[in-house]
User: Fold these one by one.
Assistant:
Number 1:
Amino acid sequence: MKRQILISLSIVALGMPALASADLDALMQECNDCHGDNGVSQWTDMPTIAGLAEFVHADALYIYMDGARPCADSEYRQGDTSRPVTNMCDIAANLTEDQIDELAAAYAELPYVPATQEFDASLVDAGKALHDKHCDRCHSDAGMNPDDEAGMLGGQQMGYLRSMFEQYAANEREQPGKMKEVVDMLSPDDVEALVNYYGSVQ
C-alpha cells in the first residue's frame, strides 16, 4: 500500500512541471495573439516584447496591474480574432505574481528581433545625435541592450514609440526624473527624429 502511494505521488510530482509548462505556454499564446509570434510584433502600434529584460517586463505588468499606465483597448491580432477587445490593465489584473514573473523570465529568453519598417532616412542622423547626447547613458547600443534594464528602443515599432513619447510628454506614464527632464525639452521634431532613428535600426 505504501509503495502504491509513493508511486502515485511520484507520478503527480513528475506531472507538475508539465502542467506548469502547459499553463505558461497558454499564457504566452494569449500574449502572442496581440504581440506577435514569440512576442515579435508585426504591427506598428504594438510593441515587441521578446528579449525585454526580465525586470522591465515584470515591472510593466505590475504597473498595468495597478492601472498606473494608459490602457487602450485592442483587438486580438491573430488566433481567435472574434474575441472581445482587451487591454493591458485587464490582462495584468488577472495574472498572479508568479505568472507575471514566469512570463517575464520566458520572454527575456527569446531573441529580440528589430522590426522591418519604413523610416525617413533624412531624420536618422539628427535622431542618432539626440540619442547619443541624451539617451545613450541609460539606453545603450541604440537602445537595444537588455543589460540596461530599460525598454527596447532601437528596432521597436515606430507607431508604438510615438504613442510612448506622447504619454511621457502628457505625464500619463511614469518615468525617472532625469528622463522627464529630457522628454520635457524635446520638440515634436526631436521626437520624430528619434522615432525614425530607432526605426532605422533593423
Number 2:
Amino acid sequence: MAHKRFFVEKISPETILTGEEYSHAKNVLRIEAGEEIVLLDGSGKEYCAIVNEVKKKEIVCRVVSERANDKECKTSVTLLCGALKGDKTELVVQKATELGVKRIGVFSSKYCSAYMNENKLERLNKVAREAAKQCLRAAAPEVVYFTTLEEALLSAQSIHNKIFACEFARESEIDLHRLEGDCALVVGSEGGFSEEEFELARSLGYAGVTLGKRILRAETAAIALTSVALFALGEMQ
C-alpha cells in the first residue's frame, strides 16, 4: 500500500506539516505518531518521513531518507486552456496533471464567458497538487492565469512545438504522430476562437491542428490533445 503523500514548502531533517496539509492529515486521514509518510517539495524527489508528534496546529515529521521519483515526463508539455464554466477547468487541470503536464496556463479570450479570480486560481493549484499525489508524481504543475490569449501565447514562445487546436484549422499543419521535443498545447473555451485569434497564433509560430470531424466539448478537446501529444512523445509507454 502506498504511503500517504504531502506537499511542503521546504524539506529539513525535522519537517513540519501545517495549513491545509496538516488539516487533511489529522482530520481526514487520521495520521498518528509513528506512521511513515512521504513528503514532497516539488523538486522531483520524494522524502520518506516518520511522524514524530501530532500537535494542535502542526505535525512534526522526521525525514529518514530520500529517493528520486520516476513518474515525471522526460519531455516538458505545457497546456494553455481557455477558462471554462463551472468546474470544468478543474477537471482539465486534474486530468492534465495525471497525464504528466509540466505547466498549465488558463487564459481569457474573445468568446470566453468564464471568469477567474485569486480564489479560483488557488483552488486550481490545490486540484493540481491533489492530482499529483493521487498519481504518485513528486511535483505538481503550477497553474497560472493570463488575462489575454496573446499573453498566454507569448509565455510559450521559446517552446519547440507550438500547437493551436482550432475549428478554423481545416487540416493539421503539424504531424501529431511525429512530435519530438517540448510542446505547448492551446485549446479554447466553450466559445472557441475567433479567426483573428487564430491568425494571431499563427503569426507567433503556432501550428493549427484539427481534432477530427466531430465537435468536442472544450474540456474533452484539452484532455484529448494532451493525451495524443504525450503518446506521440513516448510518455505513455
Number 3:
Amino acid sequence: MLINSFLIPDEYLNKIGTGLYLSTSKLDHCCAPNCVYTYNGTEQIIRALTYIEQPSPDKMFVTYIDNAMPSWERRLQLNENYYFYCQCSWCVDEAKHIDRLMTSVKCPNSWCFGFSGITKDDTGQTQLLSCSGCGKTDFPVEYAREIVRLVREMAKGACIELKLWQKAVEYGELAWTQKIKCVPHPSPSLGLQLFEQGKLLTNTGNIDKAWEIFLKAANILQITHGTENNMYLELEDLIEQCEIVLDLPV
C-alpha cells in the first residue's frame, strides 16, 4: 500500500489526498517518462507524452517523484520510498550534464565565463564538477554548495507574499528559463510554472509578454493535462483576455 499508493493533487499540484490505482501501479518508473498521470478530482487519467506503438504496461513509464532534481536527490528519494537504485537513461547517460545545469554556479575566476556545479558519487560524497570554461576544479566545494543553497531560497514566493510583482517576475524568469534545460519535455511542472509566470506578468501590466508565456504553457498543458482539464480551460480564458487587450484576432 505504501509503495503503490499515489498522492492526489489538485490542478495546481496541491495535495488533497492519497489513493490506490491498480492500473497505474503496474507502470515502472523513469525519470524521463513517456507517460504522465493527472487527476480530475479523484479520477486518475494517464496520458502519453509521446507516441507509443502498441501501448502496454511494459512500454509505458511514469515518474514516481518530482524529476526536477539532481540525479543524486532523485535516486535518494527513490531508494528511500520505493527501494530501488534508478538506472534510467536520465540518471546514467544524462546525469553529469543535467546535474551541472541544475546546480550551476559561475566560476570564481573573474576572467572566466564558464560555470561549475556539484554532484555526488555512489557513496554520497559531494564532488565538484570541473568548470565548463577553464576546467578549474580546485576551488572549495563549499563555494558551490553555499551558492546553490542561496539560489534555492524561496525568493519568488517571498516576493509574491509581499506583492513585489516585478521582483517575483524576475525570479520567476530565472527559474523557468533554467528549468526548461533540466527536465524532460513536456513537463507538467514546467507547464504549471509557466502558467504562474504568465499570471505574475499580468499583475505587472506586461500583457504581451504574459500572452507569450501563456501560449508556451498551453503547448505543454494540452499534452500533459488535456484540453478538458479545468486548469487548461482557465488558461484558455486568460489567453483570450490577453488577445482582447492586445487587440489581436481571437
